[in-house]
Design goal:
By secondary structure, the protein is mainly alpha-helical. It has nine helices and two strands, in the order ααββααααααα. Helix 1 crosses helix 4.
Length: 202
Amino acid sequence: MRNLYYESTIHKQIRDKRTNRKERIAQDIGRYGNAVLESDELKAAYEQTHHLWSTVGEHTLRVAATSVMICYALRKLNIKVNVPAVVIGSLCHDLGILGRDQKFSSKKECTNEHPVDSVKIAKELIPELSDTSADIIERHMWPMGESKAPNTLEGVIVSAADKYSAVKDLVKGSDINNTGVRNTVLEKKKEILDTIDGRNRK
């Protein structure tokens, strides 16, 4: 009996700790990234597909949350990290992708050029954009394409979080059904799967 109580208490503490961490992450993203979160650009990001089954907006928030979580882990190791710069950099890193079909002639051009466009948009949203945030945004594609390696630990954090989130987007898909955003790619996937399923039943 005592063991069951002890185990349930431990599980509750773990759940509470995770909930508290998620709340802290959300608070930090809101505190430091409010100007970006309230922007028309981020709202538009929820209407453009990204990594096949996600949207730019969903991916952006996942990168921000993962980046801040990495910052917390590093702080526990007494490694100083600039959380505000990480939040701004992660929230702005892919804003240059918006309207990619009109702006870029190929995926390669998009890969190489959208970080520069993202920095321009970030400077419009946040005129006092720090050099650290600009570096995060400009070099977040590393080691892909022609991107240079980040100059800062914060840049490495966001670049790693971006790759992790991109793989998660592709493999796991996204929770887009809960966002209310219409995603034509996702609808097309469902249509294709329904067609295949119908054929298999015959």
